[in-house]
Specification:
- The chain is mainly beta.
- It contains 3 helices and 21 strands.
- The strands form 6 sheets. It has a 5-stranded antiparallel beta sheet with strand order 6-5-4-1-7, with no helix packed on it.
- A hairpin with a 5-residue loop joins strand 5 and strand 6.
């Protein structure tokens, strides 16, 4: 896929006239733009909530704009970036209830029937926020990695395949973050209900930092059976899985790894939709290792 266009050059707005007070971002990921226009080609960068900005116009001009829709304020950031920001998303005081910088986002409960997408490129970055710097990379995912989307089906349909759009997702280990929507494909749109209406929610991963990570699997053929018990019977069938469906082994990693590909063995697993059961070990492969991040990763 083609790479996103580089950001526009920042305008030169500092004429030596300043307000007597700074303003602070009231929204996370507040955009700083080269023009007073919301468009892909005007985005210079995004800043965190409570970021302080110097106003590049006089009090009399800036004061009436603050908090007003469709008004823009010329600002300068601490790193020297100059641009325009939405006046309706700034205030004269910090938000005392906002989390401190670096605080990890709260883990969101994921509906059982949330939409599912999969990576269409190798090396897709799962990021902590929609920022293409190295510091935001949580994981690097292989082609075909399945992700549950923490947004509505309508948003998934709108965003997938669209440049500069980002999706909030959770992987099979419930690591949550965002991915570039132009590098994923839709697997399913889940149920219409989302959020409080969803009947069943997922739990977090059942392992902690420091423990051996669980084995991740993929089905190696079409219509692999997920069964309630480890034997073949029409009474044990929970569902059938398409080829390359992702599964997480919920038994000791050394035991699960030793069974892969072995006739007569069964592995206790959970799929991305939180269905638990057993799969025939001879019908799964270990998922490819996550690609190693490069020093200068692509903006995906």
């Amino acid at each position: 896929p083609g790479a996103p266009l580089p950001p526009p050059a920042p305008p030169k707005l500092d004429k030596g006239v300043y307000a007597s007070f700074p303003v602070y971002a009231t929204a996370d990921e507040l955009a700083i733009r080269s023009q007073t226009l919301v468009a892909d080609n005007t985005l210079l960068k995004r800043v965190a909530i409570n970021t302080e900005m110097k106003i590049l116009e006089a009090d009399a001009t800036a004061n009436p704009k603050i908090g007003q829709q469709n008004q823009w304020i010329p600002v300068k950031l601490a790193d020297g970036t100059e641009g325009y920001t939405a006046a309706w998303l700034v205030s004269k005081a910090k938000n005392a209830n906002a989390p401190a910088p670096g605080t990890p986002p709260a883990v969101v409960a994921v509906p059982k029937d949330a939409p599912v997408v999969k990576a269409s490129v190798d090396g897709l970055k799962l990021r902590s926020k929609p920022d293409t710097s190295d510091a935001t990379i949580l994981k690097v995912l292989p082609t075909g990695a399945e992700l549950k989307v923490l947004e509505t089906a309508a948003e998934v349909k709108r965003k997938v395949g669209t440049m500069y759009e980002w999706l909030k997702v959770a992987d099979v280990q419930n690591t949550q973050g965002v991915v570039a929507a132009w590098y994923v494909n839709i697997v399913s749109l889940g149920a219409a209900a989302f959020g409080p209406e969803a009947q069943r929610q997922t739990s977090g991963p059942n392992f902690s930092i420091g423990e051996i990570l669980p084995v991740l699997l993929r089905t190696s053929e079409e219509n692999v059976a997920l069964r309630q018990f480890p034997y073949i019977s029409k009474d044990t069938l929970i569902k059938r899985l398409p080829m390359e469906s992702e599964l997480i082994a919920i038994e000791p990693p050394d035991i699960a790894a030793g069974k892969i590909g072995q006739p007569g063995e069964w592995i206790h697993v959970r799929d991305v939709n939180e269905n638990e059961g057993y799969v025939a070990a001879w019908c799964v492969l270990e998922r490819p290792e996550d690609p190693i991040p490069q020093v200068s990763p692509a903006d995906c």
